[in-house]
Amino acid sequence: MRKHHRNSDRAFPSPQNLLAIMLVPSLLPITPLHAQESEQVITEIVVSFIRKSSLDAIDIKRRNTGVMEAISAEDFGRFPDGNLAESLARVPGIAIDRSNVEGQSIAVRGFGPEFNLVTLNGRQMPTAPGQYGGGRSFNFGDIASPGISSVEVFKAGNLALPSGGIGSTVNMVTTRPLNIDGTLRSFSIAGVEDTTSEDGGLPVEGAMLYATNRGRWGFAVSGVYQERTNQEQGTRESNWIVPEVLALSEGFSRVDPLAVGITDQRSSQDGPTFYQEPSAYLIKDNDRVRKNLQVTLQGRVTDNLTVTLDYTHSGVEFQSEGMLFGSWLGGWTTQEATINQRGVYTDVAVGDRSYDHTATWGSLKSSNNSRGINLAWDVTDTLTVELDAHDSKAALGGNIFDNSIGATSDVMTTVRSTNGGSNGINTFAYDRDSSAQNMYLTNLNLQDDDQLNQITQYQLKAEWRPEFAFLTSVDAGISISKNRFNRIRREGTFAPTAQGRWGATDFDDGLFERTSLVDFMNSFGSPADSNYYFDINPASAFAAIQGLGGNLVDNSDQVGCCTAGGIDSNERVVEDLESAFLQFNLSTEAFGSMPLNVQAGLRYESVETESTSLYPLVNRIDWNIDGLYGVRGDVTDASRFGSNSMVLPSLALSLGVTDNQILRASWGRSIARPNLGDLESQLAIGAQDFFNLTATGGNPDINPLRSTNLDLAYENYYGAGSYVAINYFRKEIEDFVGNQTINDQPFNGLTNPASSESGLQAQACVQEWAAAGRPQTGFPGEGGTGDCVSQQFLWAQGWAIDQHHMFQVASALESGVDVLNGAAFLDGGWNPACPAGHWWVCGDSNIQGSSADPLALFDITQPINLESGRVSGFEGAWQHFFEDTPYGFTVNYTKVNGGNVEPDLTEVGRQFTLAGFGDSGNASVFFENSQHTLRLALNYRAETASGFANYEQPVFVEERKQIDISYQYRYSDRMTVFLDAQNITDEQTRLFVRYPEMLFLAQDHGPVFKFGVRANF
Q1: Is the omega angle on the peptide bond into residue 561 within 30 degrees of 0, that is, cis?
Q2: Mean pLDDT within 113-137
């Protein structure tokens, strides 16, 4: 069985020793035989590896008219980093989001992943959104870098590429065999050591790339296999409730700031308070396998016609086992608490709690497959036509949300939970211990999800190079594409009934292995208050539930245990997109002899959307003791539609002030399409405050987000491979998607039984009783007060609130019992008019709605184009190669400012924030000669907005940094040994909601080492 503690007997050196070892080559003296040989070595350095990659990237950047960046491969099949996201982290304005130390998605100039479009050879790539998203953000963790020759980042837009990126458009360019000389081969293999992993052995990574140019035809094949194991140690994601707001829907306050035992440090008690629901930890073992394959075949059919066929596959298999453990505080039985000056409960003692555990496991498989054909035809010397078509699919299946088995103890305790402040984690401790004999399983939750996104796209482009003065070329094109998205969810939940509840005696004590928490999350400091948990093997626990609960049935669809069951929801979104662009490229001179390049053009975009949901429609509203609820009928398809179109102008200029200095300016409009999840058509029926009906869901008729962009840039290329650049950018954004609620709307002709005559009478009479001070009503004929509220109900259910009494009174009235002038539930014996047969209730367990009831009115909440805002800032970049030396460095920083895109921390409830908003920077220094390349790199992100958690709490990621080292030793022209080390300072991750002391999630990540050999031949 896996244990959480780390193995200290590692074969790899410590980060400090590793740094010393890797710095040795750079500190050794270079002993030239004479000056001429020394100069020859330096000349060789200038054109190799990091320097060559930088020179190629600078050349791409300088030749472009607009503001853009580029990354080029250091060598055939060798990108600067093993992961494309890690390479993009070196680009000014780009910050990356990591998962388990590895880069996955990007934020550009403060715009999160969903606002950046990723293309492959100019083609829009599909994406499966994953766990929480419905967005279109591309996961770079799916693509390995071998086979990619360059990456282009267009910050000011590019009319020839598909639209959809407000922050940027990132185009990945794959290896083209007709662009190489002869035949080239590359092979690499490496072992990967994640210091958090508890699995034995050494996972391996292997990559190969073969490309050949045979004159009129050629092909390239690349393949990658990467395996990695690691362990996550962290806190559970924490919900933070606002008791004052929650009381409006629940009818009571979970915790009273004025109660005895609560110390309130606020200067005023009028504002909201914030209470942490769960206090728990997580230990999770992961195993990830990534496979990539890319095949390209090119042929010159004629001297003027080139055909390219390509296929790209990427796939990731991810398996995990984990354990959540702690307690759900809730707030109900709080005995002691401290409220700080900002209204945050920072230290609580909660009674009647048990030490709860959840065993989780999951298996998830993703795959991306793209098939394409490209025909490039030089019709004449001045006209080139290109036809491109591709069919690409992104699929994700399995446990997008983990399966889980709940466990608890029959020892009820008082738990004290303390939040760790602005830098620490929450800790918890119990006043009584539990043993394996006290533990038992409580429930089983199984999930099975499938997502599929398919894009079929046809593009026709033409470039005309007229022999006119000033006009160098005219570019035009049209595109037709169909984007299909499908999300299917299945879920099965199984638990014993109240009459057949499982207990500790029902389960073998061997299922629960008490395990020490020594060194847990040691980068934060080990939690002092809790020193053990119970490790539960999911397979054994699953078998135990099957053995005891074979007759269990999922209440939602009556499917027997133990599968996820049938389809619970089936969401489909189809977008038909049409676009066209026209761009003029001009070249002239200004101010005498300064070269001036101008690009001006328009792009037209049109989309029609059809969204279809397969789900059980609500065909009636009923009323029970918990309030109004929707009764679902037959499962059926329901479709809704939307459409929009727009014109996007663009203007870019570059002015060569001198041979080395360039001024750039661009203005234009760009769009980002709404999240696919926001376009879904289903509306879920619910109720707040017992009687306020709600409907929430998607909206297929949402417009794209629109941005008006201004970029100004100065670039000085003062030496070979050296430059300084500073950019100012400003984006005015309209139609950010927010959630809007429209009150009191009819929906599908549904009616409301609580608005019927008897329902209104019941509500009115209970309100009169409440206004009288809620007296004991007594029995009829025994001094009863004449109120409609049942005395039996008051005695039997002391927890009941006014809304519960309203239902009981209405239920009696519906049964023909007149209780408006006194509770006639009992009169010398059971009242035969009370069919329920209970001594404290009269009437059925629910009141069915009918067509005779008044029309139901709903508060309908849907995503809608609601918000506007502004993002501006500066980017600075400096790259310098020290002349006649093997040293160099790069540094960049992006400072962003916003208007109406950051949440108001004093506001409670739904509001808007721009996910990804925050500063970022990168720095690296390197040493490189003919044999050695050593680079030390820092990736920095300031505090960043990340979206919203439950209860509309804004989430922030704390300032963080990661330091990486890479070293290459070129044993010969064909053989290189390399060592990469990521996160050598063991940087942790910490997220909070609203204020730093409101911890949302903390994770402890260790260093990752990779050692291998690479051959070119």
Answers
A1: no
A2: 78
SS3 752: coil
Distance CA 275, CA 268 (A): 17
Interval 305-337: pLDDT, tens: 999 999 999 888 999 999 999 999 988 899 999
Let me know: does 692 contact 581? Beta carbons within 8 Å: no
Q: Which residue has the higher pLDDT, 264 or 690?
A: 264
**Beta-carbon count within 10 A of 40 CB:** 11
The secondary element (H helix, E strand) that includes residue 15 is helix 15-27
Distance CA(804)–CA(762), nearest Å, equals 11
- Going by the DSSP 8-state scheme, the letter that residue 720 receives in this structure is T
Compute and round to an integer the Cα radius of gyration of the chain.
Answer: 33
Residue type at position 399: N
**Residues 6 or more apart whose Cβ sits within 8 Å of residue 498:** none
pLDDT reading at 818 higher than 50: yes
DSSP tag of 277 = S
What's the number of CA atoms in the CB half-sphere (13 Å) around residue 53?
Answer: 23
User: What's the half-sphere exposure (Cβ side, CA atoms, 13 Å) at 601?
Assistant: 23
The proportion of the chain whose per-residue pLDDT surpasses 90, expressed as a percent, equals: 44
Axis crossing angle, helix 802-814 with helix 757-771, rounded to the nearest 10? 140
What is the pLDDT of the chain when averaged over all its residues?
Answer: 84
Contact in structure between 198 and 231 (CB atoms under 8 Å): yes
pLDDT in tens, 631-645: 877 777 878 899 999
Q: How many of the other CB atoms lie within 10 Å of CB of 254? A: 18
Q: What is the percentage of the chain residues whose pLDDT exceeds 70?
A: 88
- Euclidean distance between CA atoms 803 and 252, whole angstroms: 11
**Pairwise CA distance, residues 154 & 163, whole Å:** 11
CA distance 1015 to 1017: 7
In this predicted structure, what is the pLDDT of residue 132? Answer: 60
> Is pLDDT at 465 greater than 90 in this prediction?
yes
Contact 407/512 with Cβ under 8 angstroms?
yes
Q: What DSSP assignment string belongs to 819-862?
A: -TTS-TTBSSSB-TT-TT--TT--S-SEE---TTSPBP-EEEEE
Comparing 245-254, 349-358, 574-583, 884-893, the range with the smallest average pLDDT is 245-254
Contact 523, 1004 (CB under 8 A): yes
What sign has the CA pseudo-torsion 808, 810, 815, 816? Answer: positive
Query: From CA 629, how far away is CA 620, in angstroms rounded?
Result: 9
Reported for 68-71, long-range contacts at CB under 8 A and 24+ positions apart, including other chains, are 68/152, 68/153, 68/154, 68/155, 68/156, 68/158, 69/93, 69/94, 69/152, 69/153, 69/155, 70/150, 70/151, 70/152, 70/153, 71/150, 71/151, 71/153
Q: Residue 234 class from Cβ within 10 Å (0-12 exposed, 13-18 middle, 19+ buried)?
A: buried
Query: Cα separation of 782 and 776, whole Å?
Result: 12
Tokens of 224: 């990658």
Tens digits of residue pLDDT in 647-664: 999 999 999 999 999 999
Say if residues 998 and 992 touch (Cβ distance below 8 Å). yes
- 660-664, 762-766, 787-791, 986-990: range with lowest mean pLDDT: 787-791
Maximum average pLDDT range among 551-560, 643-652, 981-990: 643-652
Bridge partners (DSSP) of residue 301 are none
Q: Which of 235, 13, 123 has its CA nearest to residue 1007? A: 13
- Give the dihedral of Cα atoms 20, 23, 28, 29; nearest 10 deg: -140
What residues contact residue 558 under an 8 Å CB cut-off, 6+ apart?
Answer: none
Token digits for 773?
Answer: 């001070």
Chain segment 174-223, per-residue pLDDT in tens: 888 998 899 989 899 999 998 888 877 788 999 999 999 999 999 999 99
- Helices assigned H by DSSP within 506-552: 538-548
Contact 487, 451 (CB under 8 A): yes
Block residue for tokens 């990168």:
922
Burial of 261 (0-12, 13-18, 19+ CB in 10 A): exposed
Largest CA distance in the chain: 120
Q: What is the pTM of this model?
A: 0.83
